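Q: Structure tokens for this one, please.
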Amino acid sequence: MSGSSSSAEHRPARADLHDALGWIALGVAVLVGSLTMDRLENQNINPYTVPGLLPGLLGIAMVILGSLLALRSWRRGAFTEPRPVATPEQRAQRVRIAVVLALCIGYGVGLVGHGIPYWIASAIFVATTILVLQRMSADEVRRQLTPASWAKAIAIGVCAALVIQGVFQELFLVRLP
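A: Here is the predicted structure, written as tokens:
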């Protein structure tokens, strides 16, 4: 096809470098997490079926692919191109991403595994995330938190938590905290 080009040519090399660093960091975190998982040696588990094997391999793949993306962005001039000025929409998007990351970290570090039943912690997380993101909406009408929006968020949170717990415990036979 003449005249067509890949989307990589339109994406700034510096943005690819930032994404690459994120993938490398995530891959390292997944790899470290998989290496610190219980190996279940006391239960005579086959070494090829131990928990953490697949996540470890996925973590290695993320590090390799992130490194390849970083190399490509470096070759495309990630360190020499001028820094773009963020638009108000881009800044608002960054704030939303930071809020979602904070909510996820709060869920993983603060709620799960600290005595609260898993389904309750998950219901709180889902409902809170819905309400916070609704409150951050650019649309003035959607930003209003009415009793109906609270009820809807709580209902979705409870239903999602119960489905997740049921699927993992009954279908995948994974005991949740």
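A few notes: Confidence is low (pLDDT under 50) at residues 1-8. The CA atoms of residues 20 and 66 lie 4 Å apart.
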